[in-house]
TrEMBL record:
Name of the gene encoding the protein in the UniProt record: LOC111290058
Location within or outside the cell: Secreted, Extracellular space, Apoplast
Molecular functions (GO terms): enzyme inhibitor activity
Protein name: 21 kDa protein-like
Keywords attached to this entry: Apoplast, Disulfide bond, Secreted, Signal
Source organism of the structure: Durio zibethinus
């Protein structure tokens, strides 16, 4: 009987251990929801941008990481704009190989690829600079970043202008403009957050 009782105890212990392991795995697999305070910071910050709905939809998922920090908000916005712009550049390169384009359309697309490529470089430089710790000349650094992000936004607008006229392939034109519009709007949001961080005292 003692042996049987011991066997039952061991079996119960094994079951409890397995339950604990499964519980831990479930907890690890469940994403941590952002706190109300962090989410409210994103909502308030996005409210003053030109594209509040896109802004909140994009950055609310980073609320826990940003933690109400204007610097982290600006850095995250630059990173999102950079990644989206770089991805769009690759798509544009593929589209540039599209057959059946008129000479004007093909030329506009090549110019667009070059302009968006410049935007990628400018956003990359901005991320590198804003991540520099302990820079003594905060305002000079932020001025450089504002210049680069503004240039990236200008490149996006110039790219869209190249597709403002008639295009024989309407779906092609719509596809290009839709992608560039998103890039431009995310860059605009990033510039807004950079401007606000630049106006705040350095931390």
């Amino acid at each position: 009987m003692a042996a049987a009782g011991s066997y039952i105890s061991i079996t119960a212990l094994v079951i409890l251990i397995r339950l604990a392991i499964n519980l831990n795995l479930c907890l690890e697999a469940t994403p941590i929801p952002p706190s109300g305070r962090n989410t409210q910071f994103i909502r308030t910050s996005c409210r003053n941008t030109l594209y509040p709905n896109l802004c909140f939809t994009t950055f609310s998922r980073y609320a826990t990481r940003i933690r109400g920090s204007p610097r982290l908000l600006a850095t995250t916005a630059l990173s999102v704009a950079f990644n989206t712009t770089r991805s769009t550049t690759k798509t544009m390169i593929n589209l540039s190989k599209h057959h059946g384009l008129k000479r004007r359309e093909a030329a506009a697309l090549r110019d667009c690829v070059e302009q968006i490529g410049d935007s990628v470089d400018e956003l990359k430089d901005s991320i590198k600079e804003i991540s520099q710790p302990g820079d003594n000349d905060f305002h000079r650094l932020m001025s450089d970043i504002q210049t680069w992000v503004s240039a990236a936004l200008t490149n996006d607008d110039t790219c869209m202008d190249g597709f403002s006229g008639k295009c024989r392939k309407r779906n092609f034109k719509t596809n290009v403009r839709r992608r560039i519009v998103k890039v431009a709007r995310l860059t605009s949001i990033a510039l807004d957050f950079v401007d606000r961080y630049a106006a705040a005292p350095p931390h």
